[in-house]
């Protein structure tokens, strides 16, 4: 992670396009949408039920960003009435293990993070 060699730093450079992609894929809701869609294909309202805290506007924005970045696919189903289903795209599926690892890391380390926050707030407050 802290490779300071010239070749290593070139590979790990985070310039504007990288930051933009990471911001859009790892934002508050997109990470959860990716996690849910890695499990199965879902319609919009099924996604809303799977992520109860997300609002309609936020879910729509996250889905559009993820679709624009090629992480998910929007599939129109030929049913009556016509329905739309969202599924993980091949490039988005490559994030499955990473998303699981990030979510696992937050779960495992949240108590320590909360303690650090409390110590910081006690000094700063």
TrEMBL record:
Keywords: DNA-binding, Transcription, Transcription regulation
InterPro entries tied to this protein: HTH_HxlR, WH-like_DNA-bd_sf, WH_DNA-bd_sf
Glycosyltransferase in keyword set: no
Keyword Nucleus: no
One Pfam family cited in the UniProt record for this chain: HxlR
Residue span, HTH hxlR-type domain: 16-114
GO MF term (any one): DNA binding
Name of the protein in its database record: HTH hxlR-type domain-containing protein
Lineage, highest ranks first: Bacteria, Bacillati, Actinomycetota, Actinomycetes, Micrococcales
């Amino acid at each position: 992670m802290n490779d300071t060699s010239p070749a290593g730093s070139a590979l790990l450079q985070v310039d504007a396009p990288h930051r933009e992609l990471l911001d859009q894929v790892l934002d508050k809701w997109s990470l959860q949408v990716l996690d849910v869609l890695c499990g199965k294909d879902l319609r919009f309202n099924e996604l809303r039920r799977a992520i109860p805290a997300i609002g309609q506007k936020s879910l729509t924005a996250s889905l559009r960003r993820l679709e624009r970045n090629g992480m998910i696919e929007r599939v129109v189903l030929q049913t009556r009435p016509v329905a739309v289903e969202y599924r993980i795209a091949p490039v988005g599926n490559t994030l499955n293990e990473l998303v699981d690892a990030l979510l696992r890391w937050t779960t495992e380390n949240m108590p320590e993070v909360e303690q650090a926050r409390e110590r910081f707030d006690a000094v700063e407050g």
